[in-house]
């Protein structure tokens, strides 16, 4: 026993030392969970939005402003434009197809949704800017009537109001609300079929760099589109702006 006692003492000392080191947090420091989690959550909220104007509608061909819901159908030309747009978007890897409550956007979305074997989801909030007092007036006069308030919105005056309709604050709130619904549905790379006034105005109000784009010069033609990347929290970066119909160079 006399010879084995030092060994027993050494074993006991090592065991006590291990317990002490463990209690004091010995070993490598754990990664800070809060910062990792918040960074991951922020990355998860990033989206690439492709915003597409509808094909030619009967309203467009009539030459008058029609913004009421559900609105007119596409013309034959509009349906052909929709098919061309679907072919142009075939390699975009969209993870969702969305359209406004207006018939012309839903009809424009059909070929793209069919190619992707997806259903078009109708989202309230991305419909056209209501024309108010200018409903039924000539599109040719829009720069002096219908677009006056939206131009002010893109210049930072969100208090300006479309006569008989919404203000810039109200417009921003409802479009952002629609984008939040799309995000919350899990889409991070959606294609959204909407309207020239809504797409052009919202984009110019929200991107960090407009890259020289402005109303009314850069209003999208039928099936023209823009692509923005970012989030509602961090802001948006303009990636692409195609004024001409999708599929045209």
Secondary structure: number of strands: 6
Low-confidence stretches: 1-6, 8-13, 15-42
Calculate the terminal CA-CA distance, rounded to whole Å. Answer: 95 Å
Task: Give helix % range.
Answer: 25-40%
Largest sheet: 6 strands, mixed
Outline the fold blueprint:
Blueprint (H helix, E strand, L loop, with lengths): L4 H19 L9 H13 L1 E7 L4 H5 L13 H13 L7 E4 L3 H14 L3 E3 L25 H7 L13 H17 L5 E5 L1 H11 L18 E7 L3 E8 L7
Parallel strand pairs: 1-4, 2-3, 2-4
Antiparallel strand pairs: 1-5, 5-6
Helix pairs in contact: 4-5, 6-8
Question: How would you describe this protein?
Answer:
The chain is an alpha/beta fold and 249 residues long. It has one domain: Rossmann fold (3-Layer(aba) Sandwich). The chain contains 8 helices and 6 strands; from the N terminus they run ααβααβαβααβαββ. The chain has a 6-stranded mixed beta sheet, with helices on both faces. Strand 2, helix 5 and strand 3 form a beta-alpha-beta unit. The radius of gyration is 28 Å and the shape is globular. The relative contact order is 0.17.
């Amino acid at each position: 026993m006399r010879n084995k006692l030092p060994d027993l003492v050494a074993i006991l000392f090592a065991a006590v030392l291990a317990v002490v080191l463990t209690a004091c947090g010995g070993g490598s420091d754990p990664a800070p969970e809060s910062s990792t989690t918040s960074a991951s959550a922020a990355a998860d909220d990033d989206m690439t939005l492709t915003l597409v104007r509808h094909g030619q509608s009967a309203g467009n061909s009539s030459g008058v402003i029609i913004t009421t819901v559900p609105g007119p159908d596409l013309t034959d030309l509009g349906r052909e434009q929709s098919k061309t747009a679907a072919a142009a978007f075939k390699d975009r890897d969209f993870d969702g197809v969305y359209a406004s409550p207006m018939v012309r956007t839903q009809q424009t979305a059909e070929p793209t949704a069919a190619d992707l074997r997806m259903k078009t989801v109708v989202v309230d909030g991305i419909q056209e800017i209501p024309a108010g007092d200018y409903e039924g007036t000539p599109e040719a006069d829009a720069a002096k009537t219908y677009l006056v308030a939206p131009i002010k919105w893109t210049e930072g005056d969100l208090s300006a109001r479309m006569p008989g309709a919404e203000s810039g604050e109200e417009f921003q709130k409802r479009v952002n609300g629609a984008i939040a619904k799309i995000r919350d549905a899990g889409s991070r790379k959606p294609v959204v079929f909407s309207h020239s006034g809504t797409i052009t105005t919202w984009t110019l109000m929200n991107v960090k760099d407009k890259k020289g784009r402005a109303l009314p010069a850069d209003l999208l033609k039928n099936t023209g589109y823009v692509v923005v990347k970012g989030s509602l929290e961090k802001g948006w970066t303009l990636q692409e702006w195609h004024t001409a119909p999708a599929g045209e160079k």
